[in-house]
């Protein structure tokens, strides 16, 4: 009997095109709305981490956030593709297809079904500051290398956070960032030098509509 794992068609269709051995950054979020900082972070990570692609995982909802003003998934997907505007950045609705609520479940699914790919989880410093609140955050750190992008003025809060302190011995020097995708987890790097500091919150009106749109 063959031991080859067959990826269900509905899952494969939600996963961007790829080839064996690719180094892929995963940037999860609600993208409500997507903006130029998402694109800048992705291009920064592509260069500094020597990645082949970055996949934007547009989540159906964030367990740590109020989702009442969340725009419809299709609208966020279309807007994300418009903002990405780079063939190396792919937009995926994988989490809605596999019905995962937590990052750990998404990562476990990707690693199990696409074991030939080398994944890196990408997050902003603001997310590292609250990473200890994520479901099974220690397991996430143990499953996939992580790249944290500095977002001033969050730097001190992020590096002083419970998760950063707990994982401090696994932190790579920034000048070794290009090696991160080849490391066994836990491993992480804190990347500085990106100054663009937009947020989706700042681009929403009080009623939840996106600024600059009707």
UniProtKB/TrEMBL annotation:
The keyword ATP-binding applies. InterPro entries: Cyt_trans-like, NadD/NMNAT, Rossmann-like_a/b/a_fold. Residues 26-188 form the Cytidyltransferase-like domain. It is an enzyme of class 2 (transferase). SUPFAM superfamilies: Nucleotidylyl transferase. CDD domains: NMNAT. Keywords: ATP-binding, NAD, Nucleotide-binding, Nucleotidyltransferase, Pyridine nucleotide biosynthesis, Transferase. One of its GO terms (biological process) is NAD+ biosynthetic process. It catalyses: nicotinate beta-D-ribonucleotide + ATP + H(+) = deamido-NAD(+) + diphosphate. It holds the Pfam family CTP_transf_like. The keyword Plastid does not apply. Pathway: Cofactor biosynthesis; NAD(+) biosynthesis; deamido-NAD(+) from nicotinate D-ribonucleotide: step 1/1. Its EC number is 2.7.7.18. GO terms for molecular function: ATP binding; nicotinate-nucleotide adenylyltransferase activity. Belongs to the NadD family. Catalyzes the reversible adenylation of nicotinate mononucleotide (NaMN) to nicotinic acid adenine dinucleotide (NaAD). This is Probable nicotinate-nucleotide adenylyltransferase. The lineage of its organism: Bacteria, Pseudomonadati, Pseudomonadota, Alphaproteobacteria, Hyphomicrobiales. The gene is nadD.
């Amino acid at each position: 009997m063959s031991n080859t794992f067959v990826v269900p068609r509905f899952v494969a269709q939600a996963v961007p095109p790829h080839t064996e051995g690719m180094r892929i950054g995963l940037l999860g979020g609600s993208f409500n709305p997507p903006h130029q900082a998402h694109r800048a972070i992705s291009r920064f990570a592509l260069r500094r981490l020597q990645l082949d692609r970055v996949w934007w995982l547009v989540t159906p909802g964030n367990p740590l956030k109020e989702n009442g003003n969340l725009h419809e998934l299709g609208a966020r997907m279309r807007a994300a593709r418009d903002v990405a505007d780079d063939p190396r950045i792919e937009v995926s609705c994988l989490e809605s297809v596999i019905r995962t609520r937590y990052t750990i479940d998404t990562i476990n699914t990707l690693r199990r079904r696409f074991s030939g790919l080398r994944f890196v989880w990408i997050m902003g410093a603001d997310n590292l500051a609250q990473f200890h609140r994520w479901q099974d955050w220690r397991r996430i750190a143990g499953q996939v290398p992580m790249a944290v992008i500095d977002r001033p003025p969050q730097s001190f809060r992020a590096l002083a956070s419970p998760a950063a302190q707990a994982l401090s011995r696994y932190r790579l020097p920034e000048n070794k960032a290009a090696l991160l995708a080849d490391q066994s987890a836990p491993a992480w790097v804190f990347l500085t030098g990106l100054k663009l500091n937009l947020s989706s919150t700042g681009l929403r009106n009080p009623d939840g509509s996106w600024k600059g749109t009707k």
